Amino acid sequence: MRHDVSIIIPIFNTKELIAKNLPGIIEAKRDVKNRITEVIVVDDASVDGSYDFVKKNFAEVKLIRHKFNRGFSASINTGARSAKGKLLALLNSDVTPQKNFLTSIFKHFEKQEVFAVSLHEKDFSWAKGFFKEGFVEHAPGKQLNEAHETFWVNGGSGVFRRDYWMRLGGLDERLFSPFYWEDIDICYRAAKRGLINVWEPEAKVIHLHESTIKKLSKRYVQTIRERNQLLFIWKNITSPNLFRKHLTGLTRRMVYHPGYIRIVLMAISHARSILKARKKEKKESKVSDEAIFTKFK
Fold this sequence. Notes:
297 residues, alpha/beta, 11 helices, 11 strands
């Protein structure tokens, strides 16, 4: 079965980055080995001229514009809904692909259980996930020269099977907007349904991480990161044993770090959405939380 690829690039006030990296992606599309059927750029209501720049200079790009800023997850979901390819290659505007960067991923998608393949960002490897002191954490795995199962696939440099993506409902923009943990969430949900996420060392790109987010205040970014970590746990960790450990760890953190109570209150404000999503995960999951974390010990 041939797997054609739709490239999806979300942009928000990143005119300089898109000017630098989009030509390389267009060039990659012309190489038939990459099997790229279309390049979709989703502008999230930029005010720096990004939309007009792409419209003027890249006629071959399918350009979509949000009327107002909706965040990373919503931009990706918009692109995914309009995509024609069987595979969705998500690339941030700060990602520079190497020549034939997609040719090595297709063998993985011959296996029906594979949900997503992580591209090889320079100086990074596969990701391991673990449960520590009541919280879900992740860290880079050991650098390897062969493919390896990964805890999650980066939403800014990864390829996802579209039909599975749509069944999972895409990125959870209701809970995780404006950014962080949304890509970990969809990969974890896939894993709990028995699917696999893979890292491919030959699919090489360069990713200048957080080129857009760094424009925001560090305190705000850290607050969102910590809030979304809690939302992820409350939504996805359905093991009674691990969730009890989480409540113990959460209590300890609030006692020793009272400022963390503000993060908890921010997360609690999403209680209705969390409970609804958690109920769905309990119903549809086939693999235990413990089984997933055991893979990465």
